[in-house]
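User: LRRCT domain-containing protein. Structure?
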Amino acid sequence: MAPTCLLCWVCSLLCAWSVVTGHPCSLDHQGWANCSGKNLQHAPSSLPRNITSLDLSFNSLVMPHHRTLLKHFPSLQSLNLSSNAKLTLNPAVFSNLGALRLLDLSSCSITHIHMDTFKGLGNLHTLLLRNNSLQKLDVPFLLPLKALFHLDLQHNALVSVDPWSLQLLETVPQVLLEGNPWACDCSAHPLQQWLRRRRAVQVTCMSPPGLRGQEIAALDSQDLGCQVKQRFARELTTPQNITVTENNSTALPAGKGGRSWPYLVGFLVTAIGISILIALAAKCKLAHKNFASYRHQPLPEIGSIGRSPMEDSSSWDRGSCGSHSITDAADLQAEDDDGFIEDNYIQPSEQLPTKEERELHRSI
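Assistant: Predicted structure:
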């Protein structure tokens, strides 16, 4: 009976607190505050600081422009803001709720999320954004959410999503994308590969009419109407370093378009080197040919053919009586000696002397 009496006493105390403070919310002994459907335009400022759950759904809350939505609640773990049609998400509007684990923003007509909207929510586990009007998924808003496990994006106005946003979504184990009007064309191929890896089902096409209602993961590249390169899958599976600065500004990963320039430079250097080697080889061959042609010697005269070296040397060692003839022969040879063997240098009729002729010449 004692615990029951204590529980009743806590409930009575919380009810009395709500009456004294004048806020329309109901409190329970577990720290849960229910302010749903009270037509509130501003969050109550008189709630106890130790509450763990706050329901502000189905109101007409107006977000402040330059301050946080709620005062500091160090123990608040669950916040329900669903079905507030005038809700506008400004930067750092939840920055003082560091212990928050669940945030419900469903059915709030949200069309855009600033990348710093969830700044300070490093412990957030579940984010519900279903039944809104998000047309473009600017996923950098997920960067401050280091502990995010469940993201609900069902029934928005999403038509496509870029590959880099899909890479950021890879860090979230559970992502729900059903009920969006996805366009199944060439741009949907990265999403198709992402859904296949996640084994996601019930994510269907809205357009073109021929593919309406078909699951995106079950389609192939021909169904999407374009020739798809394997580069998309490699981009989605390759991790990239994404930097977040102290003020939560995002440094995008380096572009991939410059990966091919080292191959181009290598190809050009190789081509130029080969061309130089070919030119040097051709030039050396031509020089060798010219050098070899200048080393040709004229053939000896007919009279010297068949004589022994001793006879040749004795004929050149004769006295002055033969010097005149030698000089004349040298002059004649100098006129015709250009280093080349001319055509018909040896006439066909000029045959080498036979052995009998050489014997006869010696006897004489």
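DSSP finds nine helices and twelve strands in the chain. The first helix runs from residue 2 to 21.
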